[in-house]
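Summary for the steering committee. One of the milestones for this cycle was to obtain a three-dimensional model of the protein with zinc ion bound, which we needed before selecting residues for the alanine scan. The sequence and ligand used are listed below.
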Amino acid sequence: MPKMVAMAIPEPGGRFQRVERDIPEPGPHEVRIRVQACGVCHSDSLSVQGLLPGLPYPLVPGHEAIGLIDAIGPDVSGWTVGTRVGVGWSPGYCGYCRHCRRGAAFACENVQGATGLSRDGGYATHVLAHTSAVARVPASLDSVQSAPLMCAGITTFNALRNSGAGPGDLVAVHGVGGLGHLGIQFAAKQGFRTVAVNRGRDKEALARSLGAHDYIDSDAGDPAAALQAMGGAKAIIATVTSAPAMQAIAGGLGPNGTMMVIGAVGDLTVNSLDLLLKSASVRGWYSGTSADSEDTLAFSELHGIAPMNEIYPLARAQEAYDHMMSGKARFRVVLTMDD
Ligand SMILES: NC(=O)c1ccc[n+]([C@@H]2O[C@H](COP(=O)([O-])OP(=O)(O)OC[C@H]3O[C@@H](n4cnc5c(N)ncnc54)[C@H](OP(=O)(O)O)[C@@H]3O)[C@@H](O)[C@H]2O)c1
Ligand SMILES: [Zn+2]
């Protein structure tokens, strides 16, 4: 019997272990994907460190997977073996319960579990996914290039287009990491006056080459004051992994501005007076649905948007993860499933 290979975390806070398992059969409404590439996201730390209650261990992280459908479960229509698809960490939704019908799919009563978080993910040669969680990948996009679009891409693309900002509005992308380096590209191509914000000047030239019209060094002064000097931001796409850093920029919102909180930083303190005087808001943003992933892929194809990747084989998942966590990755680490 052929086996699948996965890099699994045995218990919260554990290290990756190579495991061989029987190749699983897809259940009802599921497909099995032969994974070609899977991005390594900072959010994988939730699975690796066990930062959410009730996660199932051993657990295979990975929610930026691209591959070919190689088996189809019962009650599946519209999907065929050989189709190239991506799966992000959006859970599968039923599409017909009262929450899905009202567009609040994240509250779906039949939610199928988040890939790489509450069910096994893409640090593996094979992954099962609910059909409502998978997105078709355009033929012209490369699998390794597309993998980070399944989380880093969709999250920033979708946050930007739901931020309330319009063409020409000042939008700050805070953090120039895996998410931020894509967020800058999306913001510029979505027509915003795009300002990148990061610590120091190391990433300024790169941020500008990705489309940023301006750059703020958050170590050189008060980043909120710097944004106010530009007129105040209509939206701040906050991708940093530090709560103090995120707090320090919230005051840079302009009237009716919105800070889209993407970085998972725990407790966050904002000045209520500052918010109410501007009718400004702070809003959490979770990536999106598989339809949003398809929009992200199509927009990226149209505008030539791509991540900058560092590639590791699946067997070196621990090294790849450690490199991502070190903050030294430029800018997305992607695993390929050669073995
Ligand atoms: N909401 C969602 O659906 C969603 C989806 C994906 C990821 N996330 C979250 O988004 C965050 C970013 O993920 P990522 O993969 O882009 O991470 P990443 O590649 O590690 O990038 C982290 C960014 O945060 C900055 N940063 C780190 N520590 C900082 C500090 N003390 N002060 C100021 N800036 C600091 C880094 O700046 P330097 O260059 O200076 O190090 C870098 O720009 C994570 O919290 C992740 O869990 C959320
Ligand atoms: Zn992610």
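Key point for the committee: DSSP finds eleven helices and 15 strands in the chain.
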